[in-house]
Amino acid sequence: MADAGFRFLYREDRGRIDRALWWRATLPLAALVALATAGWVAVRPYAAHDLNRQPFIDGATVGAYLYLAAYAFGLILAAVCSYNVSAKRFRDRGRAGRWAAGLPLACFLTGALVWFIPQSFGDVPDWAGRVAEVALLVVVAWNVLDLGVGPTDVRNRRVLP
């Protein structure tokens, strides 16, 4: 991955990459997102703030929300990096790079729906979140199979003399 360059892989959507480089660029992103999500799951109980039992300004609650802000910013950066890496691979597979927006969009929409269901007071049924999660799993499987397993379309490779 060092020969491809960090800027080329994660900060630009132009170019093409093969499936091995796609895996080497995608797995670290997935590991970082999983680690950050595990951190949020560990910190999330401190975000609940009950003024009857806790002071108005509670250090643990402030820390949890600071982590949440950093976590949200990190997820947006990871989504942009994932888009840039996958756009190159989609282009290498003979498809438009804009298909790479499908996975980050599905992740954000599913996350927003699952977050909103408890706040909707029953207006949005619980099964809607499960349907969105299944749809997200389908999009993830499609990306992995298409980008991580599918061969390179040789018509898209330039043969240099």
From TrEMBL:
The keyword Ribonucleoprotein does not apply. The chain crosses the membrane at residues 21-43, 63-85, 97-117, 129-149. Keywords: Membrane, Transmembrane, Transmembrane helix. It comes from the Bacteria. InterPro entries: DUF805. The keyword tRNA-binding does not apply. Coiled coil: none annotated. One of its GO terms (cellular component) is membrane. Signal peptide: none annotated. It holds the Pfam family DUF805. This is DUF805 domain-containing protein.
